[in-house]
Amino acid sequence: MTIKITVLVDNNTLIDSYFCGEPGVCYHIEADNKKVLFDTGYSDIFINNAHILNIDLANITDLVLSHGHNDHTWGLSHLIQHFDRRNTERSKVKHLIYHPDALLPKKFHSKVIGANIPKDVLTAYFSCVETSEPYYISENIVFLGQIPRNNSFEGKEPIGTTIDNNSNEVDDYVLDDSALAIKTSEGLIIITGCSHSGICNITEYAKQVTGLNKIVTVIGGFHLQQASKEVLEHTGNYFNQQELTHIHPCHCTDLNAKIYLAKHAPVQEVGAGLQLIYPS
After folding, report:
1. pTM summary value
2. Which end of the chain is more exposed for a tag (fewer CB within 10 A), N or C?
Protein backbone atom coordinates (compact mmCIF):
# COMPACT_ATOMS: atom_id res chain seq x y z
CA MET A 1 0.00 0.00 0.00
CA THR A 2 1.15 3.53 -0.74
CA ILE A 3 0.13 7.07 0.11
CA LYS A 4 -0.48 9.37 -2.83
CA ILE A 5 -0.80 13.14 -2.49
CA THR A 6 -1.87 15.13 -5.56
CA VAL A 7 -1.74 18.92 -5.62
CA LEU A 8 -4.92 20.03 -7.40
CA VAL A 9 -4.54 23.72 -6.55
CA ASP A 10 -1.57 25.87 -5.61
CA ASN A 11 -0.44 29.42 -6.37
CA ASN A 12 2.24 27.94 -8.63
CA THR A 13 2.33 25.52 -11.52
CA LEU A 14 5.26 23.33 -12.53
CA ILE A 15 7.45 23.82 -15.58
CA ASP A 16 6.16 21.79 -18.56
CA SER A 17 3.17 20.64 -16.50
CA TYR A 18 0.09 22.27 -17.95
CA PHE A 19 -2.37 22.72 -15.11
CA CYS A 20 -4.14 25.83 -13.85
CA GLY A 21 -3.10 27.53 -10.63
CA GLU A 22 -4.62 30.18 -8.38
CA PRO A 23 -3.90 31.60 -4.89
CA GLY A 24 -5.50 28.71 -3.04
CA VAL A 25 -5.09 25.15 -1.78
CA CYS A 26 -6.57 21.79 -2.74
CA TYR A 27 -4.99 18.36 -2.28
CA HIS A 28 -6.30 14.90 -3.12
CA ILE A 29 -4.96 12.27 -0.71
CA GLU A 30 -5.20 8.49 -1.14
CA ALA A 31 -4.34 6.50 1.99
CA ASP A 32 -5.87 3.76 4.17
CA ASN A 33 -8.45 3.03 1.43
CA LYS A 34 -9.66 6.62 1.84
CA LYS A 35 -9.83 9.33 -0.81
CA VAL A 36 -9.62 12.61 1.05
CA LEU A 37 -10.00 16.06 -0.46
CA PHE A 38 -8.22 18.71 1.62
CA ASP A 39 -9.67 22.16 0.86
CA THR A 40 -11.25 23.19 -2.44
CA GLY A 41 -9.38 26.31 -3.52
CA TYR A 42 -11.07 29.53 -4.63
CA SER A 43 -12.81 28.48 -7.87
CA ASP A 44 -13.55 25.38 -9.94
CA ILE A 45 -10.03 24.80 -11.28
CA PHE A 46 -9.46 21.89 -8.88
CA ILE A 47 -12.21 20.01 -10.72
CA ASN A 48 -10.60 20.62 -14.12
CA ASN A 49 -7.16 19.65 -12.84
CA ALA A 50 -8.57 16.50 -11.24
CA HIS A 51 -10.23 15.53 -14.52
CA ILE A 52 -6.93 15.84 -16.42
CA LEU A 53 -5.26 13.64 -13.78
CA ASN A 54 -8.04 11.03 -14.00
CA ILE A 55 -9.15 11.67 -10.43
CA ASP A 56 -12.90 11.21 -10.03
CA LEU A 57 -14.00 13.59 -7.27
CA ALA A 58 -17.34 11.79 -7.07
CA ASN A 59 -15.42 9.00 -5.34
CA ILE A 60 -13.97 11.01 -2.45
CA THR A 61 -14.79 9.61 0.96
CA ASP A 62 -13.96 12.69 3.03
CA LEU A 63 -13.57 16.43 2.60
CA VAL A 64 -11.47 18.34 5.14
CA LEU A 65 -11.44 22.12 5.51
CA SER A 66 -8.20 23.50 6.90
CA HIS A 67 -10.07 26.71 7.88
CA GLY A 68 -12.85 28.94 6.64
CA HIS A 69 -11.13 31.44 4.32
CA ASN A 70 -12.30 31.93 0.75
CA ASP A 71 -9.15 30.62 -0.95
CA HIS A 72 -9.76 27.27 0.76
CA THR A 73 -13.56 26.99 0.72
CA TRP A 74 -15.10 28.82 -2.23
CA GLY A 75 -14.59 25.80 -4.46
CA LEU A 76 -17.19 24.02 -2.30
CA SER A 77 -20.10 25.38 -4.32
CA HIS A 78 -18.51 24.08 -7.51
CA LEU A 79 -17.93 20.66 -5.92
CA ILE A 80 -21.57 20.44 -4.91
CA GLN A 81 -22.63 21.40 -8.44
CA HIS A 82 -20.27 18.71 -9.71
CA PHE A 83 -21.94 16.15 -7.46
CA ASP A 84 -25.38 17.34 -8.58
CA ARG A 85 -24.54 17.12 -12.29
CA ARG A 86 -23.07 13.67 -11.76
CA ASN A 87 -26.08 12.53 -9.71
CA THR A 88 -23.56 11.27 -7.18
CA GLU A 89 -25.14 8.59 -5.02
CA ARG A 90 -26.23 10.04 -1.68
CA SER A 91 -26.06 6.54 -0.21
CA LYS A 92 -22.26 6.74 -0.36
CA VAL A 93 -21.80 8.95 2.67
CA LYS A 94 -19.09 11.57 2.35
CA HIS A 95 -17.82 13.19 5.53
CA LEU A 96 -17.09 16.90 5.79
CA ILE A 97 -14.65 17.58 8.64
CA TYR A 98 -13.91 21.04 10.00
CA HIS A 99 -13.43 23.14 13.14
CA PRO A 100 -16.73 24.55 14.53
CA ASP A 101 -15.59 28.12 13.72
CA ALA A 102 -14.77 27.40 10.07
CA LEU A 103 -18.22 28.33 8.77
CA LEU A 104 -18.54 31.55 10.77
CA PRO A 105 -18.70 34.86 8.83
CA LYS A 106 -15.24 36.31 8.18
CA LYS A 107 -14.32 39.75 6.85
CA PHE A 108 -11.16 41.64 6.01
CA HIS A 109 -12.13 45.29 6.27
CA SER A 110 -15.27 45.39 4.07
CA LYS A 111 -14.37 42.31 2.01
CA VAL A 112 -16.11 39.02 2.76
CA ILE A 113 -13.47 36.28 3.03
CA GLY A 114 -15.40 33.48 4.76
CA ALA A 115 -17.10 30.34 3.47
CA ASN A 116 -20.11 31.07 1.25
CA ILE A 117 -22.15 27.85 1.45
CA PRO A 118 -25.09 27.64 3.90
CA LYS A 119 -24.81 24.78 6.35
CA ASP A 120 -28.15 23.29 5.32
CA VAL A 121 -26.78 22.87 1.78
CA LEU A 122 -23.65 21.18 3.10
CA THR A 123 -25.66 18.74 5.22
CA ALA A 124 -27.61 17.71 2.12
CA TYR A 125 -24.40 16.41 0.55
CA PHE A 126 -22.17 15.55 3.49
CA SER A 127 -22.25 14.05 6.94
CA CYS A 128 -20.72 16.96 8.83
CA VAL A 129 -18.18 16.45 11.60
CA GLU A 130 -17.50 19.64 13.58
CA THR A 131 -14.67 19.18 16.04
CA SER A 132 -12.00 21.18 17.79
CA GLU A 133 -10.44 17.91 19.00
CA PRO A 134 -8.26 15.53 16.98
CA TYR A 135 -10.46 13.33 14.78
CA TYR A 136 -9.21 10.11 13.18
CA ILE A 137 -10.51 9.79 9.61
CA SER A 138 -8.85 6.39 9.45
CA GLU A 139 -6.32 4.45 11.49
CA ASN A 140 -3.47 6.62 10.22
CA ILE A 141 -5.08 9.88 9.02
CA VAL A 142 -5.97 12.43 11.69
CA PHE A 143 -7.56 15.88 11.51
CA LEU A 144 -5.75 17.79 14.24
CA GLY A 145 -8.59 20.08 15.37
CA GLN A 146 -7.68 23.28 17.18
CA ILE A 147 -3.93 23.80 17.31
CA PRO A 148 -2.41 24.93 20.66
CA ARG A 149 -0.45 28.13 20.12
CA ASN A 150 2.50 27.67 22.41
CA ASN A 151 5.14 29.57 20.46
CA SER A 152 5.69 33.26 21.16
CA PHE A 153 6.35 34.06 17.49
CA GLU A 154 3.37 32.41 15.75
CA GLY A 155 -0.39 32.75 15.55
CA LYS A 156 -0.54 36.03 17.45
CA GLU A 157 -1.92 38.38 14.78
CA PRO A 158 -5.61 38.56 13.77
CA ILE A 159 -6.70 38.24 10.14
CA GLY A 160 -9.73 40.49 9.78
CA THR A 161 -12.82 39.91 11.90
CA THR A 162 -15.36 37.22 12.69
CA ILE A 163 -18.49 36.82 14.83
CA ASP A 164 -18.43 35.56 18.43
CA ASN A 165 -21.12 33.58 20.26
CA ASN A 166 -22.95 36.80 21.11
CA SER A 167 -23.02 37.93 17.46
CA ASN A 168 -20.40 40.60 18.12
CA GLU A 169 -17.79 41.41 15.48
CA VAL A 170 -14.38 40.59 16.96
CA ASP A 171 -10.79 40.19 15.78
CA ASP A 172 -10.34 36.84 14.02
CA TYR A 173 -7.31 34.89 15.20
CA VAL A 174 -8.44 32.05 12.89
CA LEU A 175 -8.75 29.53 15.71
CA ASP A 176 -10.33 27.22 13.14
CA ASP A 177 -6.97 26.82 11.37
CA SER A 178 -6.03 23.13 11.42
CA ALA A 179 -4.13 20.49 9.44
CA LEU A 180 -3.92 16.79 8.61
CA ALA A 181 -1.32 14.33 9.86
CA ILE A 182 -0.70 10.94 8.27
CA LYS A 183 1.23 8.22 10.08
CA THR A 184 3.49 6.13 7.83
CA SER A 185 6.15 3.46 8.29
CA GLU A 186 8.80 6.10 7.54
CA GLY A 187 7.40 8.82 9.78
CA LEU A 188 4.86 11.61 9.75
CA ILE A 189 3.35 13.51 6.80
CA ILE A 190 1.80 16.86 7.76
CA ILE A 191 -0.51 18.69 5.34
CA THR A 192 -1.43 22.29 6.04
CA GLY A 193 -3.68 24.93 4.53
CA CYS A 194 -2.39 28.36 5.58
CA SER A 195 -0.86 27.67 9.02
CA HIS A 196 -2.45 30.71 10.64
CA SER A 197 -1.91 28.87 13.92
CA GLY A 198 1.83 28.63 13.15
CA ILE A 199 3.68 26.00 11.15
CA CYS A 200 5.90 25.11 14.12
CA ASN A 201 2.89 24.90 16.44
CA ILE A 202 1.17 22.62 13.92
CA THR A 203 4.19 20.36 13.52
CA GLU A 204 4.69 20.03 17.28
CA TYR A 205 1.03 19.23 17.86
CA ALA A 206 1.02 16.65 15.04
CA LYS A 207 3.96 14.93 16.73
CA GLN A 208 2.17 15.03 20.08
CA VAL A 209 -1.12 13.66 18.72
CA THR A 210 0.44 10.86 16.68
CA GLY A 211 3.35 10.00 18.96
CA LEU A 212 5.77 10.17 16.01
CA ASN A 213 8.82 12.44 15.97
CA LYS A 214 10.34 11.60 12.59
CA ILE A 215 8.84 13.71 9.80
CA VAL A 216 8.74 12.61 6.17
CA THR A 217 7.49 15.98 4.92
CA VAL A 218 5.42 19.02 5.74
CA ILE A 219 3.49 20.28 2.72
CA GLY A 220 1.24 23.31 2.44
CA GLY A 221 1.07 26.99 3.24
CA PHE A 222 3.43 28.04 6.03
CA HIS A 223 1.95 31.55 6.50
CA LEU A 224 5.31 33.13 5.80
CA GLN A 225 4.51 36.06 3.55
CA GLN A 226 6.60 39.17 4.24
CA ALA A 227 7.57 37.45 7.48
CA SER A 228 9.83 39.30 9.89
CA LYS A 229 13.47 38.32 10.37
CA GLU A 230 12.60 37.07 13.87
CA VAL A 231 9.84 34.76 12.61
CA LEU A 232 12.05 33.38 9.83
CA GLU A 233 14.92 32.76 12.26
CA HIS A 234 12.69 30.94 14.76
CA THR A 235 11.03 28.88 12.02
CA GLY A 236 14.32 28.01 10.34
CA ASN A 237 15.90 26.98 13.64
CA TYR A 238 12.87 24.86 14.49
CA PHE A 239 13.00 22.88 11.23
CA ASN A 240 16.76 22.57 11.51
CA GLN A 241 16.25 20.71 14.80
CA GLN A 242 13.68 18.28 13.39
CA GLU A 243 14.30 14.77 12.16
CA LEU A 244 12.83 15.25 8.70
CA THR A 245 13.33 14.16 5.10
CA HIS A 246 12.19 17.34 3.34
CA ILE A 247 9.56 20.10 3.37
CA HIS A 248 7.25 21.49 0.68
CA PRO A 249 6.40 25.10 1.66
CA CYS A 250 3.95 26.68 -0.77
CA HIS A 251 0.75 28.75 -1.16
CA CYS A 252 1.19 31.61 1.36
CA THR A 253 4.96 31.11 1.63
CA ASP A 254 6.83 33.73 -0.39
CA LEU A 255 10.14 33.35 -2.22
CA ASN A 256 12.17 35.05 0.49
CA ALA A 257 10.86 32.59 3.09
CA LYS A 258 11.58 29.59 0.87
CA ILE A 259 15.14 30.77 0.28
CA TYR A 260 15.65 31.28 4.01
CA LEU A 261 14.15 27.89 4.97
CA ALA A 262 16.31 26.15 2.38
CA LYS A 263 19.32 27.02 4.54
CA HIS A 264 17.83 24.96 7.37
CA ALA A 265 15.87 22.13 5.72
CA PRO A 266 15.64 20.41 2.30
CA VAL A 267 13.00 22.49 0.48
CA GLN A 268 11.27 20.92 -2.50
CA GLU A 269 9.09 22.52 -5.16
CA VAL A 270 5.30 22.47 -5.23
CA GLY A 271 2.83 23.29 -8.00
CA ALA A 272 -0.53 22.26 -9.36
CA GLY A 273 -0.26 18.75 -10.81
CA LEU A 274 2.50 17.58 -8.46
CA GLN A 275 2.04 14.00 -7.25
CA LEU A 276 3.94 12.61 -4.26
CA ILE A 277 3.99 8.90 -3.42
CA TYR A 278 5.19 7.46 -0.11
CA PRO A 279 5.08 3.97 1.44
CA SER A 280 2.32 3.59 4.01
Report:
1. 0.97
2. N
